[in-house]
Design a protein that fits this description.
alpha/beta; about 40% helix
């Protein structure tokens, strides 16, 4: 008998999971509260770069995948996976979407079913937040009447090598039978599973992974802000340091951090530590402070570059290359480019933005979407390279632009090209 899987949330995490499960023959309901998303999915239009429209249409045609925004379609599931957002509101974790998903599942939860949380959160969320909701709403006991586990998402949008299927999947359960069910499900759709002894350990591992990156990116970002003053090129220093075959891992400076993982996830851990021990996680807080300052630093550097060319920011025409938070995706979540654009507009600049990967509307007053062209390059007082998507003729940018400030070291520094 084919199992029915419901995936709550059809974004960058939920849609790749839903399609992968459908391709393995599961009957999958992709549930989302966004009407526009469900309508696009229903006609085979993917808005997630890691899932092509061709793959989506194939599982739609096969009848193994069905998008829905009707909570009634959650009934009858064998396995339910929660992949909803977990944002921060004024520095405090917002689990309202997880709670809503838990309450909806509780109404249709039946004995023997399995519920898995994938949304990133602080250690303890599965057992302290989700388990009580499911129990109270259904009258069923987790680990006794139904199975419950946590399997953190490890999606890296745009990564062709480490996809959902090829990235090792961490799995956990509130008891051994739950762990067995969670393991069996993911083993059918990914190449490798890694077992965590408890959900709390799996939750800590997830936020630890992202905190590691957050802290190290903050280190090189701060180095970049000081390198100019000490007369050393931080990028060349990184190249040299990277030749060491042990004890060093390369991280590169940038205009700030984006996505859900780095600007949000480490602060879930920091919040939990302070709440449980009354002690602050100072390294995480400092990393967040340093990375959050980068958009302002980029604008200051660009302003200085214009000043040296006898051009004020007020009235300047700035051509921004890239709006997404990382190359070769259209992902705008927490993208530093959006804050940079707002700061430039506040400073009196006329901002034009180029990003062929971003298909959704970007509503920032004073920012005009455009395409890269010789005319745009010629008319810009400065080109600001924020996201270095592939497929751009960067040599043409460097030769045609009056001034380029490159936040990604994609171009060779020179008279008219300056690096972060």
């Amino acid at each position: 008998m084919t199992s029915t899987v419901v995936v709550l949330g059809q974004g960058y995490v939920g849609l790749p999971l839903a399609v992968a499960a459908a391709e393995k023959g599961y009957r999958v309901v992709g549930y989302d509260i966004s009407e526009s998303r469900v309508k696009k999915l229903a006609v085979g239009e993917s808005y997630v770069g890691d899932v092509s429209s061709e793959r989506l249409r194939a599982v739609l045609d096969e009848g193994t995948y069905r998008p829905s925004m009707d909570a009634a379609d959650l009934a009858g599931f064998d396995i339910a996976v929660i992949t909803v957002p977990t944002p921060l509101h004024e520095g405090v974790p917002d689990l309202s979407a997880v709670e809503s998903a838990g309450n909806a599942l509780a109404e249709v939860l039946t004995p023997g079913a399995t519920v898995i949380l994938e949304s990133t959160s602080y250690p303890g969320t599965t057992e302290e937040v989700l388990a009580p909701l499911l129990h109270e709403g259904s009258g069923l006991e987790p680990g006794t009447d139904f199975h419950l586990g946590y399997s953190p998402e490890r999606i890296d949008p745009g990564n062709a090598r480490w996809t959902f299927e090829t990235t090792p999947k961490v799995v956990s359960g509130v008891d051994e039978p739950s762990l067995a069910r969670v393991t069996a499900f993911y083993s059918a759709i990914v190449e490798e599973v890694v077992t965590a002894r408890t959900p709390r350990i799996a939750e800590l591992a997830k936020v630890m992974e992202n905190t590691f990156r957050h802290v190290n990116i903050a280190l090189v970002n701060e180095l970049a802000t000081h390198a100019e003053g000490i007369g050393a090129d931080v990028w060349e220093a990184l190249d040299i340091a990277s030749t060491k075959p042990f004890g060093f891992m390369r991280f590169t400076p940038g205009p700030g951090v984006g996505g859900h993982c780095l600007p949000v996830d480490p602060l879930y851990l920091s919040w939990k530590v302070e709440r449980t021990s009354s002690r602050r996680f100072r390294l995480v807080e400092l990393a967040d402070e340093l990375n959050s300052q980068m958009p302002e630093y980029v604008v200051r550097r660009l302003t200085r570059g214009l000043d040296r060319r006898r051009q004020t920011m007020t009235g300047s025409r700035i051509l921004m290359l890239g709006l997404a938070y990382k190359p070769n995706t259209g992902d705008l979540r927490e993208s530093p480019a959006l804050e940079i654009a707002e700061l430039l507009v506040e400073a009196g600049a006329e901002v034009r933005a180029v990003d062929p990967f971003v298909t959704e509307d970007v509503s920032i007053d004073g920012v005009t979407r455009t395409e890269l062209s010789p005319e745009e390059l010629a008319r810009a007082h400065a080109v600001l390279l924020v996201t270095d998507h592939d497929g751009v003729d960067y040599e043409a940018v460097a030769s045609a632009a009056r001034y380029v400030f490159d936040c990604r070291r994609r171009l060779t520094p020179g008279e008219h090209v300056e690096s972060l």
